[in-house]
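sry for the spam today, last one i promise. struct tokens for design, 224 residues
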């Protein structure tokens, strides 16, 4: 049987119309036979050949009761609803002793951009500014860089980062926290700034923010 997470692209509401019920039934029948229902339905839409739809549980006869335009409209609507639900912004943190680099993603979760370097004063001040930024960028999804050792083990720095993120969760219980291996993120950020001919003085001001960008971009790429 096909994996539901991989094959079921479309979402159906509780208040189903006739087309939704038919599509749900047809998708279930194709999954039971091990087919990817989306691939099969797209093939049917493009070719008009009902052989793309299994006859299992009378799925082929059911799908033929729908006009092709009606089927396409329902699939597109369901897909757009799902995409709208999935749209959210992520914020990444490059946590250091003196600074916290901050980057955010676009709503589609495709690209990261640096927004600020928080100059650390106290835990209360750090949490307050972080909360302001989360509100400003309308996000409750945080990606924290995890400074693992080069052999992949976690040392004291990882413990410090996790302790800080635990404080974040206490202050903002609704946030979701992800950790991302940040090994070499600062190195990559520095190399990128050097290649862009940014002066050493300016690099010091933006390096933490740029490291947060590399952390977040790696996380976003992994999700795709």
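last one done:
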């Amino acid at each position: 049987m096909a994996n539901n997470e991989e094959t079921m692209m479309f979402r159906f509401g509780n208040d189903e119309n006739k087309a939704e019920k038919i599509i749900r039934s047809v998708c279930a029948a194709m999954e039971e036979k091990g087919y990817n229902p989306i691939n099969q339905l797209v093939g049917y839409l493009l070719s008009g050949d009902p052989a793309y739809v299994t006859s299992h549980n009378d799925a082929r006869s059911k799908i033929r009761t729908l006009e092709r335009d009606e089927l396409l409209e329902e699939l597109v609507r369901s897909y757009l609803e799902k995409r709208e639900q999935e749209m959210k912004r992520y914020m990444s943190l490059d946590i250091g002793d003196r600074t916290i680099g901050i980057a955010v993603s676009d709503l589609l979760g495709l690209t990261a951009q640096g927004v600020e370097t928080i100059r650390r004063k106290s835990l209360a001040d750090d949490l307050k500014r972080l909360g302001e930024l989360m509100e400003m960028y309308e996000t409750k999804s945080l990606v924290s860089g995890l400074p693992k050792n080069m052999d992949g083990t976690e040392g004291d720095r990882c413990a410090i980062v996790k302790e800080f993120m635990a404080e974040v969760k206490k202050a903002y219980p609704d946030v979701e926290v992800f950790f991302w291996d940040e090994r070499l993120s600062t190195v990559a950020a520095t190399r990128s700034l050097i290649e862009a001919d940014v002066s050493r003085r300016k690099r010091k001001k933006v390096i933490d923010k740029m490291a947060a960008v590399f952390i977040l971009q790696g996380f976003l790429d992994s999700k795709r």
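The two ends are 24 Å apart (CA to CA). ok im logging off now
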